[in-house]
Amino acid sequence: MDWQKIVIHHTASPTEVRRSGKTVPVDVAMIREWHQTKGWSDIGYHFVIMPDGRCAEGRPLCRPGAHCIVGRRNSIGIGICLVGNFSETEMPEAQLVGLVNKVKQLRADFHLKLGDVELHRDVSGAVTECPGLYFPTDSFKKKLEEKA
């Protein structure tokens, strides 16, 4: 794949849900299930960042995503999703750090510029507030600019 962008999303869901009488965390397997229930072949995102900052692999990077159809982002953009609803709550600091670390790694691996990192809502033609109204845009950009 010729990756030219990184697109940031949120699940717009709680971080935990009730299943079979138990509270369980939303994770890659659950998101994959949600997406496959829609008839998709796999999870739409390439990576998922958990609230504690851990990064889990989703759809393999050898396959286009299913996360942002406008602007050909599924074909040219690596999709990273944050578990949580940042239109309702603020992102945990550990999750922001995990996101920044993953984005820095992907930028280095694929020789991408800072301007190649986009929030879903900022992709031309996208009609969404994803990754949420409380996504810490300024802090995210500042941390991306910091040297390792």
TrEMBL record:
Residues in Peptidoglycan recognition protein family domain copies: 2-124
Domain of life per record: Bacteria
Record InterPro entries: Amidase/PGRP_sf, Amidase_domain, PGRP, PGRP_domain_met/bac
GO biological process, one term: peptidoglycan catabolic process
GO function term, MF aspect, one: N-acetylmuramoyl-L-alanine amidase activity
Membrane-spanning parts: none
Limits of the N-acetylmuramoyl-L-alanine amidase domain: 1-132
Chain coiled-coil ranges: none
Pfam families: Amidase_2
SMART domains for the chain: Ami_2, PGRP
Family of the protein in this entry: Belongs to the N-acetylmuramoyl-L-alanine amidase 2 family.
Protein name (Swiss-Prot/TrEMBL): N-acetylmuramoyl-L-alanine amidase
